């Protein structure tokens, strides 16, 4: 009974955060001019935000190091199905991050939101925009961490990410027994940071209430317009990812374009309704068999894809980071976006299995810092996240089906019908003659 109650509370928390944000915003509208009340709300909300911010640097370092090490050490594992599935996942994650990096900045530049409203939002975030180089190339040398301790102390996330990626690659190339001596504490550090974030997010309704008061009192209805515009961009990104996955399956997965669209529609509808890729798995398995994937291959590839792959992870992280930069008036150049894409990919792989809002914070927070964007408005975007989650879930399910078709196509090419390998109990593999 207690576990069921806890589960219901976990599911309802995003809704409570959204309700708290709306109530706070309306209260802020009514409290315009009440300086003392607004300053008190800013103080409480600021303390809550600082508790979240303190986890960013250790979380980024631990996630990137262990993520790169895992990718480097696994290399090309046995099995054509697993190898092709991993390749497809990496390619689509990179395409998702790059798509967001290309699509979101010009859309934000075309925003109909008044410049004065953006300035008010920047003031409401409670953070000064970090300094950026005069040109994109001017900061390239500064990205090399000649003193990693000084970079961490200064909050310079990009040098920290570069060092963490280099360290992770080196650890992945070492003998596992030696590498685990350092990787195990780093994994524990990442788990501890995520646990802290989870505890802080239990008070998210209070933080959202205070931030809502601040927005209502200082920005007004322009904040609603800005959030609506961000949600529209998020919906567009979901449609782009569905299109990318469909084209990937049609061009490289050995299935027809029309056939894939028809087969993917039922899982997409169920995914949008349930907002759960796992709940959609039976329907997705049926769609894979409809597209000619053998029951054996689908039973292996699809559950693995569901458990380790969210195509919306990098794109949503990049979109949220760029939106935070836009809302705070922070300029972002191409170099920052190029560095943030692999950070978003690694973050989306590293935080799988983490529940609810912790996932969005752990995936989006490091990317926002890599882009140089302040995190003051991140809880507001987390609060409205459920409104776009149904479309992201449909995108994820489409990508799961696409990578399964690609992986199975490679197995069919390697082993034509009648020559598939037979798995024996002792692990040996025999190939029957046609």
Mean pLDDT: 75
Radius of gyration: 23 Å
Provide the β-strand percentage band.
Answer: under 5%
| Secondary structure tally: strands | 2
Structural class: mainly alpha
Characterize the biggest β-sheet.
2 strands, antiparallel
Helix content: over 70%
How does the overall form come out from the CA principal axes? globular
Keywords:
434 residues; mainly alpha; two-stranded antiparallel sheet; 18 helices; 76% helix; globular; disordered N terminus; disordered C terminus
Description:
It is a single chain. The protein is mainly alpha-helical. Helix content is 76%, strand content 1%. Strands 1-2 form a two-stranded antiparallel sheet. α4 (80-109) packs across α15. It is globular, with a radius of gyration of 23 Å. Residues 1-12, 128-137 and 413-434 have low confidence and may be disordered.
Quick recap:
With 434 residues, the protein is mostly helical. Helices cover 76% and strands 1% of the residues.
SSE topology:
Elements lengths: L1 H29 L4 H19 L2 H19 L5 H30 L5 H10 L23 H6 L3 H17 L2 H26 L2 H15 L3 H31 L4 H18 L6 H10 L4 H14 L3 H17 L5 H17 L5 H15 L7 H7 L1 H29 L7 E2 L5 E2 L4
Helix pairs in contact: 1-9, 1-17, 2-9, 3-7, 3-8, 3-15, 3-16, 4-10, 4-14, 4-15, 4-18, 5-9, 8-16, 10-14, 10-18, 11-12, 11-18, 12-13, 12-18, 13-18, 14-15, 14-16, 15-16
């Amino acid at each position: 009974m207690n576990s069921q109650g806890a589960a219901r509370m976990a599911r309802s928390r995003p809704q409570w955060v959204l309700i708290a944000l709306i109530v706070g915003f309306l209260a802020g509208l009514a409290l315009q001019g009440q300086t003392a009340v607004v300053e008190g709300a800013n103080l409480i909300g600021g303390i809550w935000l600082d508790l979240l911010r303190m986890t960013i640097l250790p979380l980024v370092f631990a996630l990137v190091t262990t993520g790169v090490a895992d990718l480097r050490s696994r290399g090309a594992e046995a099995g054509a199905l697993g190898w092709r599935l991993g390749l497809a996942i990496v390619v689509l994650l990179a395409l998702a991050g790059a798509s967001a990096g290309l699509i979101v900045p010009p859309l934000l530049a075309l925003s109909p939101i008044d410049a004065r409203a953006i300035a008010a939002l920047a003031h409401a975030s409670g953070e000064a925009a970090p300094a950026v180089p005069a040109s994109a190339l001017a900061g390239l040398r500064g990205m090399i961490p000649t003193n990693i301790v000084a970079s961490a102390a200064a909050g310079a996330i990009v040098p920290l990410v570069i060092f963490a990626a280099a360290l992770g690659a080196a650890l992945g190339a070492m003998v596992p027994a030696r590498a685990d001596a350092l990787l195990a504490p780093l994994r524990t550090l990442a788990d501890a940071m995520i646990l802290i974030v989870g505890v802080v997010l239990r008070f998210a309704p209070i933080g959202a209430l205070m931030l809502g008061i601040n927005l209502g009192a200082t920005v007004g209805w322009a904040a609603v317009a800005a959030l609506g515009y961000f949600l529209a961009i998020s919906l567009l990104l979901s449609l782009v990812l569905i299109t990318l996955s469909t084209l990937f399956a049609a061009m490289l997965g050995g299935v027809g374009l029309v056939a894939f669209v028809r087969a993917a529609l039922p899982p997409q509808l169920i995914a949008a309704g349930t907002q759960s890729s796992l709940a959609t798995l039976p329907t997705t398995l049926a769609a894979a068999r409809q597209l000619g994937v053998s029951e054996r291959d689908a039973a292996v590839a699809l559950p693995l894809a569901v458990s380790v792959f969210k195509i919306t992870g990098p794109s949503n992280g990049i979109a949220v980071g760029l939106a935070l930069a836009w809302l705070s008036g922070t300029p972002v150049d191409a170099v920052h976006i190029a560095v943030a894409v692999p950070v978003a990919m690694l973050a989306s792989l590293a935080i799988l299995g983490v529940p609810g809002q912790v996932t969005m914070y752990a995936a989006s927070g490091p990317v926002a810092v890599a882009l140089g964007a302040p995190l003051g408005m991140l809880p507001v975007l987390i609060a409205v996240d459920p409104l776009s989650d149904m479309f992201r879930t449909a995108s994820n399910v489409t990508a799961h089906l696409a990578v399964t078709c690609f992986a199975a196509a490679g197995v069919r090419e390697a082993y034509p019908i009648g020559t598939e390998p037979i798995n024996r109990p002792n692990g040996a593999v025999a190939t029957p003659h046609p």
